[in-house]
């Protein structure tokens, strides 16, 4: 099936774009199908410029906190960091029932979770494309049907997009604390940190995976399940 990394995004396909605003966020998005997340149902989402999809309330905070969050905010993040789309890049999002897209998603999920054959009926796709500051890009595809909910997080390397260039010492990249990657359900029990999250190893996230495809992470989150994690590869730079 088509790689979800190649899912096109632009306004001609029905995508909406976030405003050019540092620490900005989308409008409140009424989900066509409620999103079931660790047993809780959410009907409103926000795509936040700093790398977070949150439920019920926007998240404008740019300095990441460790999971579980003390304020109980439920959200998903491939890379929570200080993004400034005024300086460059775009943030797209859409809800989709496109048969071709849903067919590709269904094949991927069934491949990764063969014990739970899956047919997607709706998907929410958000893309941070060449955004300034960190220069990272991820497609978060969240397909679901009435009983199963999945998250696909995809991170890809974009060379030449970090401005200013990263310093030679990688640990915190210009003094910013290591970013979380994963999700927080809103309580103190149900949360997930992708290995390396909140540590200096976050710089290698594009080389790790739990489905044997570097940079791709797939989870079932209505009743949490995740494939085994591949061992990380080492890298001594700060490019994402």
TrEMBL record:
<feature type="compositionally biased region" description="Basic and acidic residues">
    <location>
        <begin position="12"/>
        <end position="23"/>
    </location>
</feature>
<feature type="domain" description="NIDO">
    <location>
        <begin position="78"/>
        <end position="224"/>
    </location>
</feature>
<dbReference type="InterPro" id="IPR003886">
    <property type="entry name" value="NIDO_dom"/>
</dbReference>
<feature type="region of interest" description="Disordered">
    <location>
        <begin position="161"/>
        <end position="189"/>
    </location>
</feature>
<protein>
    <submittedName>
        <fullName>SNED1 protein</fullName>
    </submittedName>
</protein>
<feature type="region of interest" description="Disordered">
    <location>
        <begin position="1"/>
        <end position="23"/>
    </location>
</feature>
<dbReference type="InterPro" id="IPR052749">
    <property type="entry name" value="Alpha-tectorin"/>
</dbReference>
<dbReference type="Pfam" id="PF06119">
    <property type="entry name" value="NIDO"/>
</dbReference>
<dbReference type="GO" id="GO:0007160">
    <property type="term" value="P:cell-matrix adhesion"/>
</dbReference>
């Amino acid at each position: 099936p088509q790689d979800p990394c190649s899912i096109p995004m632009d306004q001609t396909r029905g995508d909406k774009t976030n405003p050019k605003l540092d620490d900005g966020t989308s409008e409140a998005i009424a989900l066509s199908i409620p999103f079931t997340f660790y047993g809780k149902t959410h009907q409103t989402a926000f795509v936040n410029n700093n790398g977070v999809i949150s439920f019920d309330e926007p998240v404008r905070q740019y300095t990441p906190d460790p999971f579980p969050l003390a304020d109980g905010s439920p959200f998903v993040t491939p890379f929570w960091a200080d993004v400034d789309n005024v300086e460059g890049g775009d943030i797209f999002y859409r809800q989709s029932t496109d048969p071709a897209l849903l067919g590709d998603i269904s094949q991927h999920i069934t491949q990764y979770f063969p014990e739970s054959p899956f047919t997607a009926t709706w998907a929410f796709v958000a893309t941070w494309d060449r955004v300034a500051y960190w220069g990272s890009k991820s497609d978060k595809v969240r397909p679901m049907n009435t009983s199963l909910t999945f998250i696909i997080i995809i991170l890809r390397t974009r060379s030449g997009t970090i401005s200013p260039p990263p310093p030679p010492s990688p640990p915190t990249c210009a003094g910013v604390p290591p970013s979380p990657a994963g999700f927080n359900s809103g309580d103190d029990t149900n949360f997930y940190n992708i290995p390396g999250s909140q540590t200096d190893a976050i710089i290698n996230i594009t080389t790790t995976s739990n489905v044997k495809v570097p940079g791709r992470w797939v989870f079932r989150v209505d009743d949490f399940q995740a494939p085994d994690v591949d061992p990380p590869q080492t890298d001594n730079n700060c490019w994402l």
